[in-house]
Write a structure and sequence with these properties.
Length: 244
């Protein structure tokens, strides 16, 4: 059974490396990037977009971070306030190769497939003093699952999370980095075919996405095609996504 989940797309960044362009509205394969990401979560009970309202997303709930353009952590706070499902897909608005298959693989890896709002196993959780734990039953569902890029780096805006665990961690967190918030939750990490983690931060990235044949970049997820690890320990620190 497909997990009951919402989707939260962060679409309010400043896109400095794209000259301040409206990055979520840029077209790849004939449609805006944010619409491609929304199409990858057709099973989401609620589609929450943190950013300015825009056409083409009739079922979306639009919210703004405080302050607008304040970064991914304030944007997550704004979006998570609208989540009602047990699980939430947390996604950037510029992932042209992400598909529903990739999102379903993340949900399965996190143990969300039965749709129950169970207390997940998680590692050390963030707190104002840098200590504390997110309690959970070992061996049960994990607090989340995120994609790894081809260099083995976690892509924090390409993952799924147990909503209550994420909300508890966010309530204690005083930093600005998604890495600082999410890495201590010890998510499952997946490397999947089709480059679903690929984002369009620069004009070169956008041009590359536009020159890929439709369907070849966002290939499906077949048996044995994903590489999974338990907690991502020892992997390289992910690159910063200051624009989101």
């Amino acid at each position: 059974m497909t997990a009951r989940h919402d989707a939260c797309i962060l679409a309010g960044g400043l896109a400095r490396r794209l000259g301040g362009r409206d990055k979520p509205g840029l077209h790849v394969s004939g449609r805006p990037l944010v619409e491609s990401v929304a199409a990858a979560v057709p099973g989401a009970a609620r589609l929450i977009v943190v950013g300015p309202p825009r056409p083409g997303l009739p079922r979306a709930i639009f919210r703004r971070e405080d302050p607008p353009g304040g970064g991914p952590v304030p944007a997550l706070r704004a979006g998570l306030a609208e989540v009602t499902a047990p699980w939430v897909a947390l996604l950037a608005a510029d992932l042209p190769f992400l598909t529903a298959e990739h999102v379903n693989a993340l949900l399965d890896a996190a143990g969300a497939g039965d749709g129950r709002d169970t207390a997940p196993y998680a590692g050390t959780g963030p707190s104002p003093g840098g200590a504390g734990t997110c309690a959970g039953e070992a061996g049960g569902p994990r607090a989340g699952a995120v994609l790894l890029d081809d260099g083995g780096r976690e892509q924090w805006l390409a993952g799924v999370w147990h909503a209550r665990s994420l909300a508890r961690a966010l309530a204690r967190y005083e930093g600005r980095s998604l890495h600082g918030l999410l890495a201590p939750l010890a998510p499952v990490t997946l490397h999947l075919t089709g480059q679903p983690w690929f984002d369009c931060d620069t004009m070169d990235d956008l041009q590359r996405a536009r020159t890929v044949e439709p369907g070849s970049g966002g290939g499906g997820v077949g048996p044995g095609e994903g590489r999974e690890s338990g907690d991502g320990a020892g992997r390289a620190r992910p690159r910063t996504r200051s624009e989101m």
